[in-house]
Amino acid sequence: MKPWSQRHALAPSDGSLARAVFLLLLAVYLATFNGLPAGPDGEVSFQTTSALYRTGSLAIGGTPEAEGLIAFAESQPPGGFSVRRGVGEGEPRYYGWFGVAHPIVDLPLYALGHLTARLGSVTQTLHEADERYGVGRSEYFEHLFVGLRNPLLAAWTGLLIVLIARRLGVARSATFAAGLGYGLATFALAQARGWFGDVQGAFALCAAFYLLLVLRERFTRKNAALFGGALALAFLTRVALLPAVLVFDLALVWLARELRHPRFAPEEGTTMKRVFLAAAAPQVIGLALFLLANQLRFGNPLDSGYDIAIAGGLFGGDPLRAALAFLVSPSKGLVWMAPGLLLLGFGVRRALREGEESLVWIVFAVTGSVVLPILFFVGWHGAWSYGPRYLLPALPLLWSLAALGFQRSDVDPRLRPLAWAALAMGLLTQLPGAFVDTTTYHELAVAAAEERFEVPEEGTDADRAARRFEALQWDWGFGAPWVHWRILRHRVAMAGAPGPAAERMPAAELFRWPTQSALEPAQARERGFQHMAWVDLRKRLDGVVWPGMGLIALLILFGIVESVRGLDP
Length: 569
Known about the structure:
Elements: H1 12-31, H2 40-55, H3 64-75, E1 83-85, E2 94-96, H4 101-117, H5 121-128, E3 131-132, E4 135-136, H6 140-146, H7 149-167, H8 172-184, H9 188-192, H10 198-215, H11 221-237, H12 242-258, H13 272-298, H14 307-311, H15 319-328, H16 334-337, H17 344-353, H18 357-375, H19 395-402, H20 415-435, H21 438-452, H22 461-474, H23 480-493, E5 505-506, H24 507-511, E6 518-519, H25 533-539, H26 546-567
Antiparallel strand pairs: 1-2, 3-4, 5-6
Helix pairs in contact: 1-7, 1-8, 1-26, 2-4, 4-6, 7-8, 7-10, 7-19, 8-20, 10-11, 10-12, 11-13, 12-18, 17-19, 18-19, 20-23, 21-22
């Protein structure tokens, strides 16, 4: 990075372009919004927020779902579930082991949901009369509003990618395509509709990267404080992102050394020391909060709750096999889940030609710090998720570099057609993940895997199930995007069929191997389109959906207006 070289200043129309991407992505995410958690991890995250709001404590309890989670956790071996018994006298207290940033970010959304619940008492009552997995339900609107965290943060990440691309000199049309492409043509689409915390980690690292670009133009305490805040959010979201945080801190030091050029002296009244202190303060506060939360929950400031899982063999995978899987495995490979990254090499070459060597090094250093630990995870695949969710925090940075290859240039005039082809392919592999719930796919795939894959008899039932689950990641018949399309095709073909026939699917049709077995989802949520919040609200709770549909229409309208303003030369 040569900070005193020519930079691309943002114009007012760039703000319009960024807002357009945010609004359009948010409209798509809300239209396909999952709403309620699909699995226990999302419910644990919500129950932590609920407990913090209701009791001021991170210890879950006081709702039917929380009591069910605690009972289930007690029946599992240590390290086998995301709820852990904490310390303290009196009644046992149980905590989720997720980052403390989740409930803090969720609190305003929970408060809005709690306020809305007072206006929709009938809907709330009908929800509480229902059960799932044999456990009562509660706090419908609170669940619904807290579930908006990932759609909002994912759309905001798309906004940041637009601003990053414009600061790197990418043309407006290519920037617009890159911003929408990130949100719609990569596995970010599926993650934005779910509850996993990787979306928040991706937003935090993308914000830090953008603010690093801002700092090389305006090396001020305000920008440094925002930069430090983004890094604190990343660390408090997922402790595994600490290496990436350290890489960014080193990048700030590197940038400061480059900025000693006399043309880039800090603003009047500001010294390098004050800027560094501004960047460090939020991170120190975040670290103190992390240590305090660990002490209060588990009696050890360095115990975030994951140590019992680590001791249980979390790091015991084959890194070479995992690396190959992340590239080309039928269910998790980036070739299918983010094909736009095929232009990364062209983007890097253009960045090097424009003197951005240090920027390239930073992106790959952060990516390596995110990816390398995951390669040693036994569960590198991210379990029941659409795409390699553990890679999501690195995706926005890599995508920003790939965006440099999204336009026709003197480097290679064929890049634009290649970019459009990659984005079209990405859209085709992501759409089925929206129309068919990934929980449905995984439930059916796990059931079929018991017959399809023979595994050694040694070990526990859980060990054998884990080996079968990894085997299905490599089988082309079980490739997630294509099986999702087959499930959708079956449902469309059987539309209007009486009884459960539309949901009873031949395993041979879905997974492409000779068998007479037939499979169907066990839970009502996994049938048809009932995983979508608006369908669930209308069919199960007899609620009104026009306010949500009206909001989506307004987002699209304003998104189109901002697109025209941003793309107008």
